Amino acid sequence: MLQRGRQSRASVVTFPVVDLDQTRLVAPSWLSRDERKLFCELVGSTRARHFTPADEPLLVAYVQAVLLGRRAIKKAGKDRGSLATWERSTKIAGTLATKLRLCPQSRIDAVTVTRGRPSSPVAASRPWEES
Asked: Following DSSP, what letter does each residue of 44-82 receive, concatenated?
């Protein structure tokens, strides 16, 4: 709870407590260079406590699906099997992104989003109320 009124000199001078629980998830050592890079990018782009150690297997599977899809789409023009691989890996990545709360629809509540949106101009100007 915040203190009301002026802050004392002691409370201003003291250093804040560092929360050691806000350490980020570390990439497993057995990942390849590309997998490790994407893993670190994803973990670094979210809040410190977004991922827990229990999320590591899902996050690794997501990283592998994304990289597999990237490789497959590069070969899709020459190899029809690559297009099917790309399609499957994209579906898996989408499902895992939802489970890991990486995509907007899994992070944001639809009710709270519509509350912040201004009312539409159509609703503001009703033809029967105009003079």
From this structure: HTS-TTSS-GGGHHHHHHHHHHHHHHHHHHHHTTT-HHH
